[in-house]
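QA checklist item 7 of 12: single-chain prediction sanity check.
[x] sequence parsed
[x] length recorded as 146
[x] structure emitted
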Amino acid sequence: DDPLRAGDDGEASWARISRSRAPVATLLMDQKVISGVGNIYRTEVLFRHGIDPYRAGRDLGRPAWEALWADLAVLMREGVRTGRIDTVRPEHLPEAMGRPPRVDEHGGEVYVYRRAGRPCHLCGTDVRTATLAARNLFWCPSCQPT
């Protein structure tokens, strides 16, 4: 399944995820499970849905998967259209929150990606980082509880 491909509905990905004990953050990076989700999108979509990146795929639940799939399709299509990765909802943009814009070579406004040790935009808890699936993972332990 590929969130950018018209007609793909995430069913094949869900079949694998729903049976797996692997962390959902690992599964989102596995090209055999789902195509095209890079590190920024996996980190950010899990944050946007309040999902602990270490939750086992089989513990995700169908409604959560459907919401993730739909969000990935929207975010990734917008990224292709604009040529940048923006994952922050309008109400959390710098101008809406009175915070400075992100300065990073990747561009785009994000919630937790590459923000380790800095306060979460929503709750103020320090963003954490760890290596998972050979990539740096970022998450807010308060907004993404276990």
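[x] summary fact logged: The mean pLDDT is 94.
[ ] second reviewer sign-off
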